Amino acid sequence: MNDVFTAENMKGIAKTLRFHGNQLRHTVLQHMNKGIFSWATLISRIQSESPTVIIPHMGLENITVRELLKAKGEAEATAVYWCNTSHLVHEAVKHMTTHNVGALVVLKAGDEKKLAGIITERDFARKVLLPGRPSEETRVQDIMTDEDKLITVSSSTSILRAMELMTDKHIRHVPVVDDKVVGMISVGDVVRAIVDQQHQEVKQLKKYITGDYY
């Protein structure tokens, strides 16, 4: 049945859409306002981009790290950008820049199947740039986060758990380990998934309101 919407009807629909569009964001963020980065700012910035479906709508509680890796595309999903402990920091930073990433997995020199830690742009800024250390003379092992302090997730870890770890541990990048390193997720990957799910939630609600669902 097709109804003629009055101005009052339309106001109600608009209010519902605004609430629905913000509800997911508020639910996710309500316990995540203590971190060193602002989830709200990241979400707002990515919301301004043109929405693209990266993960089929399934609800945040059902999304795992596996879906995040797949959403990066076939090439990126299996890509593991790395360096080893003996590399110079200058080389590691060049590698990050080449691949447009903010962190590298660090593998042990001489046994590059074993995880040694992680090096990030923040490590470079805090431990090399600020103290004025020469990156051409500093080894990755001197500034990286060691394996015993490293926070990792598996492919089966939920996106909500990954967000919780990032917030509680004040980190932006997390290696994905399934017996071996299979990838890396960043806070940007997580936020894009949140925004993507939100857009799809709103789209479904619009369809429901306009009668596309019966």
Automatic annotation (TrEMBL):
Signal peptide: none
Keywords: CBS domain
PROSITE patterns linked: CBS
InterPro entries xrefs: CBS_dom (IPR000644), CBS_dom_sf (IPR046342), CBSX3_CBS_dom (IPR044725), Diverse_CBS-Domain (IPR051257)
Pfam families in UniProt: CBS
Domain CBS: 76-135, 144-201
Keyword set includes S-adenosyl-L-methionine: no
Name of this chain's protein: CBS domain-containing protein
Organism of derivation: Eleusine coracana subsp. coracana
